[in-house]
Protein 1
Amino acid sequence: MRKRTLHRGLTAFWWATLAFLYLPLAVVVLFSFNAANSAASFTGVSLRWYHQLMGNEEILSAFANSLVLAISSSVIALGIGCLIGYGMYRHRHRKLGWLIVLIYLPIVLPDIVFGISEMAFFVQIHRLTGLLQPGLGTMIIAHVTFQIPFVALIVYSRFVGLDPTLFEAAKDLYASPVKRVVHFMLPTIKPALISAFFLSFTLSVDDFVISFFTAGPESATLPIYIWGAIKKGVSPEINAIATLMIGAVAIAAIMSLLFSRRRPA
Amino acid sequence: MAYTGVMPSARSRAMVREARHLLFTVAPGAVWIVIFLVLPGAYLMGVAFMTNGPYGLPQMPLSLESFERLAGFGFLGWSPGNLYTLLRSLWQTAVSTGLVVLVAYPIAYYITTCREKWRPIMLLLVVVPSWTNQVIRTFGWMNLLAPGTPLSGLAESLGLIAPNMGLYPSSFAVTLGLVYNFLPFMVLPLYAAFEKLDTAQVEAAQDLFASPVRAFWHAVFPQTLPGLLAGIVLVAIPAFGMYVIPELLGGGKGMMLGNLVATQFAGGANWPLGAAGAILMLIATFIGLFAMRRIGKRLGGGEEVVI
Amino acid sequence: MTNNKKILALTLGGLLLAGSAQAQENKLYLFNWTEYMDPEIIEAFEARYDVEVVQNYFNSLPEMFAKLNAGGVSQYDIIVPSNYYVPRLIQTGLVQKLDKSKLENLDNVMEQFQDPAFDPGAEYTAPYQWGTTGIVYNTETFPEAPKSWSLMFDPEVNPDHPFALMGDGQVSMGGACAYLGHGYDCTDMNAWKEAARLLIETKGRETFSGFTDGTPALQQLARGVTHVGLSYNGDYLFFKEEDPDSFATLDFMIPDEGAEMWVDSMLIPSEAPNPDMAHKFIDFILEAEIGAQLSNYNYYASPNAAATPYLDEVLTKPPVQPSEADMERLRFTPSLEGEALQTFQQLWSEVQSR
């Protein structure tokens, strides 16, 4: 009996928590269709804010920047991170404590500390050498830095999960190391590569603080644009962009659900 | 990799090859992180020991001025301003971490009691909101808590807030935003802990102790402790350095350490002071990690406790 | 395997180049306040000089100053700060002198702006717009609002409605000084301390909503988040025009104790990528008709004498052109430097962190 009331209570709590989690997002979506410029009253359905969005060059360029940044940083991080992940696996019997510390550093560092140290450093380097002017380039560097550890760890754990004798077999099968990489390594770790890429991509799109401090005049990403718009106080338009971004996340969630279901885990 | 029975010279050649292999695989990433994170970090620490120039930029000579400023000593005498900010950060972190635990613990347990095929979906439901951008999530709360909205009206009619004020901007809004932001980080490790729960132990405890509270305390709680601690690390450390949420939801009232640090750079105020604040944040982070590791080891949770 | 390194080196090199090759000849980077430029003027300029204008915005002067220090000095061609930030920009070497031979329309500037105190001889600056910072309040909430800072600082005048002060410390502090009878442009240490104490007290009041920059303050007022706030006369009119319903119950006033009058000027950062085009842009803005178009769009008073005949009628009366009585009470925000600036910043950070 008691167990049942407990379970019922928990069920209620679960739904309440879900409401808590989704209410703010729902409000953003709802008010993106609001006819009036108000957070308090919903006066009617309209697409007025979406119309305002379209043809807003700044938003389009912010969107493009977000994409360029996410894709290029993910690709670079994938290359570098893969190498480290493999190196860590291959040499896991050595004492690599310093490497582990180095790899965890970008993960544990508070992002504000991360952001301002890069900014201060880039500014100084730029002053001395003229290189590293704040812009997409510096943002890509910063993003790659925080993506590398995640790629490395994912790839590493994939290798650890493999049967070690596979490597011996591959060695017998393919004489050249290049062929071994192309025909054995890459195909075996493909799932890890895919998930590492998507994680890097998501981390990049999601990042605000680090981007904010390393951005230049032409490299505002969507989160930076939204931040600026909130600070400026033009609210209803933000609802519309935010709704589009929430929609993208919802699609990603559904995809990941379908994807994980199709594969018997 | 067995090299037994190989000639010593061949063996040493193999070792060299291995070392070179290690270098080539690990060096690019390691060098990258050193150049683009360790060096900047070191530079920032250096900035903290420089003097604040007349317009907020670091300059020579080296001094401890910025740490004195951080501790509240200006040339106007001691003032508790920064101390308040620090205490506020600690307090906000503690309260919101506590609240997150209170919400996440039953949720994580509840998910493990549901049918297995539902569990991944339920976890996904908890995690998905955190996939949206932090700025957007916070903006959602700005919409929800503004004066004149139903929630604010409710709080007003219950006498919780002064009339016309609304729930945002306020410290309450900041706490709420923090709880919202970090809930998934607590649910996931707790869920993992609950899933591994040794039910035999729990049943034995149920027989042993008459009260379910004591059974829970002696059999269930210790088993979930590693997950709980992992969750606390994942929540408390980023919450302590949080910048976006207090900035957007706090108005001018809820300033936290993250904002103090950020405004020194983004508001053109005082780089050395900001750098000193960043060092404080780093120290807190490492103390947190270290403490959790120690506790985790003592509890037998081992490495998995830390991320 | 060495290939990997080469690829890495190439990628890195590419990134560095991408970073530095950003500034191109046919672009003009404008760093301006939000909502402060008529898009048609930009289009006209782009068409005339076959150049692309890239606009970036700031919400407050500290933010602008920080961005310039963080590399912006070599990335923007034009910045548009207010008077009291000009001296520190000059002294930190962040801006360059104007080449007056390239500015044919300089004579269009009104006499009182030709030799400003913040830039003697106008060697670095060309005026853009001028205006005032006043109190915007809800007339429904305060039907008989006094023309005074007490709407913010006196809990008896405004006991239970949310209000916001300005994020820029010098303006909020000046307001507190004015309310205390020391005048808006006070720089006396004791007056400042008293003002800081008042601000800390005010911040502690339940109805204090936060520190908000000028433009967002209007949005907060329009949405009912606050009922009193600080903003600029032109922005007030601009948004009132855009959204008459929300602004119907909002009014702008200059408190009798004194308030801010400011001049925003165009300056060229010392390492601007395209100073030539920057001069062309300044000269363009100084043209009579363009100057008038700018003011007509922004609802701010024009420092351009030649523009006067083309100005809309609304620009010739309050709040754009303050009444003579108000004009007497308006003051420039003092430019601080050296120890005074340090003292001020400590007091202000004290106010913020309490």
Protein 2
Amino acid sequence: MSSPNVITTCLPASGSNVHKVELPENALVLSPTRQLQSLLTIIRDEKTQRGDFVLIIRLLVEEGLNHLPVIDKKVTTPTGKVYDGVAFQGRICGVSIMRAGEAMEAGLRDCCRSVRIGKDEETYQPKLFYAKLPDDIAKRYVLLLDPMLATGGSCIKAIEVLLEHGVEEEKILFLNLIASPEGIQKVCTRFPKLRIITAWVDEGLDNNSYIVPGLGDFGDR
Amino acid sequence: MSSHDPNHLHPAVKPQLQPGKYSPKSKNMVMASHGRAPWYGPDGKNVETYVIGIAGGSASGKTSVARAILSALNYVPTVLILSQDSFYCAHTPEQVETAFNNDFDFDHPDAIDTPLFVKCLLDLKQGKATEIPIYSFVHHQRMPEKKYIYGASVIIVEGIMALQSPELRALYDLKVFVNCDSDLMLARRIKRDVKERGRDVDGILDQYLRFVKNSYDNFVQPSSRHADIIVPGSSNQLAIELLVTHVKRQLDTRSLRFRRMLAEAGEEKAKARSRSSTLVDGEGGDDNVVLLEQTNQLLGIMTILRDKTTDRGEFIFHADRLSTIVVERALSLIPCQPKTVKTPLGIDYEGLARDDRLVGISILRSGGPFSHGLRRVIRDVPIGAMLIQSDPRTGEPLLLKSDLPSSIKSRDTSGEVKVLLLDSQMGTGAAAMMAIRVLLDHGVKSTNIIFLTYLITQPAIHSVHRAFPEVKIVTAAIDPELTEMHIPYNPDSLQLGDVAGEADFAVQHIPKSSTNVVHKNGPEHKYENGHGQEEGDDLRGAVKSENELSFDHFKIHVQDTEELKFSRSRSKGVESEKRAWVISPGMGHIGDRYYIS
């Protein structure tokens, strides 16, 4: 079983200060495997097209799903033997923060069959424009999708909307591609029971509140 | 028949000829029947291929002898006849000129590129892939293209100079000289050349006196003293029979009862191991066996895949998802180079770039699902395939077809290629070893091979690891044991693919009349009392009938999806059984569950 806040190192994480930053209890960073680092290199490259993002997102979703509960289940295999396995518990719902989060939906669908996906709108100023969420969202685990966590403003707004719709805070998993240390601190302090799963923590923010070195405006790309 | 008229196919000089009517290139022939049984021992090392060298004068009957041996060895999967004609030297423009003027001595030993001949034959003898030159009699020149040859079980080398060079002689297991009276050879030569090559008698005699006779007297005939056996060039049925009997006996002593050896060796280990621990990392924390982290999601996926009630849609979805996870883990093992890119903010980022000399090879059919996962992760990766099934008679794996990417086929690149070998499960490890051996035979480095699978048994890890310790294995689960099962089938509607298991879902055909004593060989009995038996009568098979398997993996026909009993006592309507080694608890026949609804 993977446990949060354990970071195993495969290679020195170049260009990142992930190991120097004190992360809050409820933030998890993916292991910096060669595969993850080469994928990140591809998506940071200004020449990269949008299609390549999906691979990293799937890694995030797989990690996120691991935080959902399971129950023991015995099944009979085709050879007639009994196998002690587990079954997934709880229904899930993916909520993407528009526009950028939509790019993550395909990655989610690769891992979850017939997952419900709702929409949430964000702008530079965190103000809700549009929310289209499944009716039974209060009973579900929510995978909140937003690739970039910079200042954390839009993310906090989206989480507030989910809470207003009755979702329990501990049932929200925030899946994120690249985060700034500031953003993580802000979100985790505000919502201590929520979990953040991010692929990479970058150095920080520039004067325009862009993550550096980052990967530009995800939504535009 | 190697001595030839340099002019016989040159239309400019002899316009009445019909080029292509007789092509000496066809002397190189490959006879392939069914698949190829293991050509290596359990240690993973190749057993040398049996090589027969046949020399003799022009028109002495070498080719007839070679073909007689070939047809007598029709049970041997791949017999290659390698003709000396392919190895004529590359010529200078002057030599080509001489050849067109009928003045080039093709019957002299120097006309043959012996070093290249030796190198190619040595490669083939050691079981490696090779590329032989193509010589064109139309252009009197070696062509720039080469012919890729791999996988002969027996090689017959024929040519007038086959016994001439000591380097070549050292490679033969059996040296044959076809002896024929000169007048008979000349008579045959005249008859053949007039009829097949449209030449006139004067020309033939002229060439005979200038080159052929000298060559025969000075080089060919004297080489007969190196022969193990001298066969008459006519009325030689008896001699050929003796020859073939000898060859068959030699081949028998080399044949390997392979999967059985593996299963036996592995079983002991597995039993010892399963007593001490259930899920351990291969050979005690070895880096080269990577078991995926057993997360909740992974266990959940495995539960769905193992459950016999899982429907096909669900199975495919989760198999694809699992493949993707396994592929991503395996890619973490591929070396990376530092790479600096500019982000859209104009900042340099020091990242990593994966070695892109990467190919996937799936072992069909059960490796098929994996190639979907690989394509998801790397869209443009070249994917090759090997079709490996198990021989219904012996239970051994058979290589039926291999279709490899060009980067592996060429020796110039194969040394650097990283190969992801894909198969959904590894039971005995026999098919995996065969696939690995094929790659090594092509010059792929064992450190560059990663085997990806959903499910592997302890015995398989042991066998593969012992033979190829440097090959990495990435698996989602390790099952403790291999269970033997008996699956009834109806031999009336039998096709080759029906009884053959595939890859590591090993299947062996057992005639019903002798269910208890299968083969004469002693060790077989052990399996009859194997630990899989006691469940026999209770097992209501969810392993779908192997009858549904089609030899051709692209056309899978579904005849009957009804569940079968694994009972040995059941005899109504079923006259034969197949014996299968299956992974236990396992997940059944992954290929069937993925492809057949």
Protein 3
Amino acid sequence: MINIYEVTETNQMISQENLDVRTITLGISLMDCIDSDLEKLNEKIYNKITTIAKDLVPTGQAIEKEFGIPIVNKRISITPISLIGAAACKSPADFVTIAKTLDKAAHTVGVNFIGGYSALVSKGMTPAEENLIRSIPEALAVTERVCSSVNVGSTKTGINMDAVKLCGEIVKEAAEATKDRDSLGCAKLVIFCNAPDDNPFMAGAFLGVTEADAVINVGVSGPGVVKHAIEQVRGKGFEELCETIKKTAFKITRVGQLVAGEASKRLGIPFGIIDLSLAPTPAVGDSIAEILEEIGLERVGAPGTTAALAMLNDQVKKGGVMASSYVGGLSGAFIPVSEDQGMIDAVSVGALTLEKLEAMTCVCSVGLDMIAIPGKTKASTISGIIADEMAIGMVNQKTTAVRLIPVIGKDVGEVAEFGGLLGYAPIIPVNEFDCSAFVNRKGRIPAPIHSFKN
Amino acid sequence: MKKCIITVVGKDTVGIIAKVCTYLAENNINILDISQTIVQGYFNMMMVTDVSKAEKEFGTVAEELEVIGEEIGVTIRCQRAEIFEKMHRL
């Protein structure tokens, strides 16, 4: 039988170390809503989402209460809208009407984000996909809860550089369209390479076309728990450090598995995957940077950061896979700058640069995330940064992503405020040497060879 | 059987167990095991209970116990046992 020390340990994780289930994300396929009449399409989308997801939020709240574990977010991911809207939408403005419908549905069922205003264009773009991408700035400006993503590359197809060029411009336009709110629109837009079909985390969540009609995916968290655990092995060798991280990751993931199973049973919707992630929040003590600092770095960004992060990420996976039969999504430590107090501090004191963040993304999920850059940054430079990050994902057969916020009207030394879980971020300097001749070349970067690994 | 773990954490005072037990008896909740310890100077009690015969909803029981805790100045939590079993047992 469970003893009092185990019970106390669990409850201390919840009450003092910010252990929570970060999100229950209900994936809903919209394939059966497709219609060539735009009005009918919107109606079908609204009806399907509000029918399938009507019990999501109350069920999540009931589970929270019974198990005494916070479930921070309840969210919805949907089939990429570029596919669903292709038959009905003849212009970017047509797509925006769907974004409004999604926003309305999200408000009705009470979820805080709905992801899947997306296009998958890793090899080429259809006219509908291009229209959707061009509609993103307006869609994100006129809606509150809709999240958007574009997959522009993969290990199998290479990188669609035409889409990369377009996305650099779209990021800039999305920033302009929301400049009154520190360019918040860009915080809801992710550019991916190797995007997973079952990711429960926003802003990049969508439900891939290979998925079932409805599915429950759960994202766990708990940087504070890991930090507290490794405080107990300060000064000890790597073997003990790794063991401690693995055991902690196991415990965290088991809670996620339990919640996922309960949610699936109560909603009558099959369980998909657990995403084994260490996802920080701006709360003190809920930070990946603080874990890295506890491992032995004065500040995140110092030499050794990439190695420490690689080790952390690997141990989290090793502990987590034992705790759940189905692991998927992004699964790894997240390093969003604005959502992690330790990262914010490291940028503020100059310990952490964009280049070091890029190196860190080679060894963890997911990419250059929630980074505020000067508003004057050129679209071609943003495309160049996207291309670099996509190349890392393509060559290393991993998911990478870019969520940059060019904060219009602000420059290095100033701070962008996004509010809530999205936090705030000091604006980081960007290398200003030009790359437009590279970005303006047409076509795609071919898929890489998978032999001669060097 | 629907097992549920009730924990009480706080400053030690007269009648904590009595108050909790009275509530449980009134609501037809059976106590299977009780253990108690002092952790970092704090009174720590854990009860393993069976709530399958309780008439009230689980959430209501948890809320009412929380209120009793506030009255006597301790934190009372009522959670389904699976969260602990999942986390600490293979």
Protein 4
Amino acid sequence: MKELLKTLSLECAPSGREKAVAQRIEKEITPYCDSVTYDKIGNLIAVIKPRKKCPRVMVCAHMDEVGFMVKNINNEGRINIVVLGNAETRTLSGRRVRFLDGTVGVVSTKPIHVMTSNEEERPTYEDRIYIEIGAKNRTEAETLVKIGDFGTFEPKFTPLAGETYAGKAIGGRACVSSLISLIKETHAAKKAKTLQKECYFVFSVKREIVKRMFAVETAAFNIRPETALVLDAFPVCDYYPKDEKEQEIGAVCGNGIVISPADSKTVYNRTLFANAVGLCEKEGIAYQYPRTASVEGNESGAIHKSTDGVKTLSVCLPTRNLHSGAEIIKYRDLEALTAFTKAWLLKEE
Amino acid sequence: MFTQLKKIVMPMGVSGDEGDISAVLAAEIAPYVDKVYNDALGNLIAFKKGKGKKPKKLMFAAHMDEIGFMASYIDEKGFIRVSRLGGINYQAASFSEVIFKNGTKGVLVPEARIPQRDYRPENYYVDIGAKSKKDAMRRVKIGDTCRVAPSLFKLAGSRVAGRPIDDRIGCMMLAEAAKAAASFENDTYFVFTVQEEVGVRGAKTSAFSITPDYAVAVDIGGAGDMPSCAPLAVNLGEGIAIKLKDAMVICNPKMIAMMKEIAEEEKVPYQTEILEGGGTDTCMLQQAAGGCIAGALSVPTRYGHSAVEVIDMNDVAGGIRILAGLCQKKLN
């Protein structure tokens, strides 16, 4: 799975342009699925069903990542961008970026030496950052980049000590790799005739760019599952361990999967939540709770309210520096996530 | 009617954890309808078949959830941090008795060194009297819900105070309308919705599955007759309020006219309400699936989302007659 994680994290898939990673996933899962299709908005949907009629379950992870889009090229050949997704401009500054066609650039802003104290304290407005691609004027820049082009942080996969991995979009892609491994296990269960559920695996698009409406809603609407499981990265803030305030959302990298009773968009199904905790205890899977139920919600918010309601659970992978060019995960958390999804889908009644 | 309301006010039902109140309401309404069931999110739906050929579908919705808290962290000394579910007025909830679903009692208090003007949700904790983390964890688990203690008491005349009148009063009105209706001319659905307080979630899924032709939400509204309050042309005791608009919906003129007409036929006093802040299930009823003709009745209420919400039972009685009138009216 480490190789797969690396491969997936090196693919660039800013919200709205997920093709590269989608094709990679499609290639990986097709031999194991009854069908693999795209819906009209671009969600990739894989199905594995037993012969007899069974309860319908949907498991999803999003495949897009935070990126940007070119909105203007000025006379000096500098490129203004719109950030796609919830990224703070300070995490962009000084970063190497890559456009989807391969052109590279660097996000530039005013150096700290000439900032006023007011500017030092505040994040830079999106309008004041630009990408430098080395072009001397607009005409030259336009030979390389056009308005509307997409890009992401420069892809780089860095193994750190203690089976820790850093890279762009690594939290989200780790969830994707976990879902791929679940598909393979589900295929094996079908072959062994032990599969008791109609399984719909959704790799969703455009998760990062919307605050209220998630693209995955269309998939949930069409699938109409009875139960849904959402995998996503969880924002970890575990530096300054002595300062309680810094730890408000409270999950720690390396302490296992994050299971929430509620977040800002969903109050999770109480039975699914209690059973998930019970399952972790039974299987010896490391898990933790976030410290508050006010954490920004994920795609569950759309899924549980779709059609006439879907019983929904979310398990998340603790991720440091979420939405930056170097997110960090611990491999043992990813193993816990994979073990959980397998036990949840294939062992539980 | 006070005793009846008390029976419906007391059971627990914090958003997402409405099992207790759902069971009480199911028993309450079952004798008057054909079928009672819960959907995937927990909405309680009571269905009464209408007379005649191809009757229209009429849906009533009152939310059975209440604002409350969820245990999210237990510290070394056994103090419990709680996250809010719904629009908690922390000023009103400070230093009050809270009760968990399993009966464990505690007190909700702010951290001592925070000046009152700086009170924020994360500065609050619940003290259940536990001696240690272990002791606390025996009594309360992460994800358990709690709420400010319920109560209901009589004030002067026909007025009552307590919590959660929001929106158990609406639930009672639905149940009473089902009892009072002389006939059901339409396929009528009495829906006790879940998770209204965290973002009108249950109304969306129940309206999707029912796909009503007409829908009416019943919820608390505002009142504009207290000292030094924001202007609002709604006075306690001057009749049930027919909603024209709130922050999330503009009510259908056909529904507004129909409810006014019934009120006049029944000689029920009524007012109209334009609520600038806050939304109700109405917005989701109007938009879910293919959309429908939707409106709402608001019970004029003082001090909403506090432990001393105040209403006038005469307004409530009038509202029940309008709801029963809608049941008896052949819609087309």
